[in-house]
Amino acid sequence: MAAARTVRTAADLLREADAVLSAGTGIAATPVPTGFTPLDEHLGGGLRAGELTLLCGVPGLGKTLLALQVARNVAAAGGRSVVVSYEHGEGQVLERLIALEAGLLAGLDPVDVEGAVPLSDVRHSLQADGRPTGLTQRHGSRLWAAALDRIGSYGERLEVVCGSGRVHGLARLRELAETATDRVMVVDYLQKVAAPEGARTEDERTAAVAEGLKDLALETGTAVLAVVAADKHGFEGRTRLKHLRGSTALAYEADVVLLLNDKYDILARHHLMYGAVGTERFRDYVVCSIEKNRGGLEGIDLEFRKHFDQARFDPAGSVVAESLIDDRIHLDHA
Q: Model confidence at 151, in pLDDT bands (50, 70, 90)?
């Protein structure tokens, strides 16, 4: 049970703020950039200590890849991050990191880049084949070696914890958060975290975990980014926060809510009426909507290009220029 917070008067707060500022430090938490340019711009700089950010969407949109890329970006920029994965093992996380780094080094269109290493090649190179070779020798390309060097440059600042919800419940997550300060914690994903006793229905469990993650963030000064899985069924329109199970608690506890949708599925029809050749490009993008932002602008639709063969997104991104709708588009093809 968390200790009761000390009661202070407003005058106490003024004196403490003056003392802290006079010492050359700040009162407000310094944002930690996610590394996704337009997202950081609209979030006022990035994720903030003491806040809970939710990354939501149906399966297949790259929530885990985006969350891992954020953790990687934080560590690569000199910060500290920890990824708590309930869905993937350590080997799978390493595969994605190698493919991600190789993809970033190769560029957005690596067709002519010698030594590009897609995720499928990474997996093949790490499989047991009887060869007594080390990690560096597993793939002969220059890009492979460069990717390993990049991971090594920040690897000590990026921690990976893979386990079950029973073992890594809220108490264990709090322990991880308390072992270091100024760290971003990625939880993949929220529904896998064991709920406290007494929570019986799925909505109650979701509410209890969301509340626990928010308390953890606030009391340990950790920036928490939690992936939330949405059900593909139960609605036909664009994925919104209201469609998620336990949506009331999620909306209440979260400081920031990011919703992922496939861009092609939520475009206004007139953008899809110029032939398949011109419209197929929309399938390459995911729309990341800032549905809630307690500290700034919300209702913003951003887009990021998918490079799932490289286990990553293009971090540049942009604001969506096209019109979006709430109903999914279903085109009949002759």
A: very high
